[in-house]
Amino acid sequence: MEIWINPACSKCRSALSLLDAEGADYTVRRYLEDVPSEDEIRGVLGRLGLEPWDITRTGEAEARELGVKDWPREAGSRDRWVRALAEHPKLIQRPIITAEDGTAVVARDEDAVREALSR
């Protein structure tokens, strides 16, 4: 299992604490430093069963500068959204845990972390 984190994020730190408390075997990816490629983002989206706009932090200053709230949320715009996430990783919702069974979860609460642990 891998967890994409921003160490400054309290939800990421909470998820790590729970993984540690449960004795989980995982690797940490500091995605602001080790930025995922567009292909990696597409892969995680497939594992999540979500679209790029579903995992975009639209309240971030960078998102406002880009005007992402006004971008179409449709298949034809998907590549634009993915490219924005790859170029501005701060916009990626966190933490994201990729589970052993090939799925993933946005682990913003304890239930989501436990869901990843159960897979």
UniProtKB/TrEMBL annotation:
PROSITE patterns: ARSC. It holds the Pfam family ArsC. SUPFAM superfamilies: Thioredoxin-like. InterPro entries: Arsenate_reductase-like, Thioredoxin-like_sf. Belongs to the ArsC family. This is Arsenate reductase family protein. It comes from Streptomyces griseoaurantiacus. The lineage of its organism: Bacteria, Bacillati, Actinomycetota, Actinomycetes, Kitasatosporales.
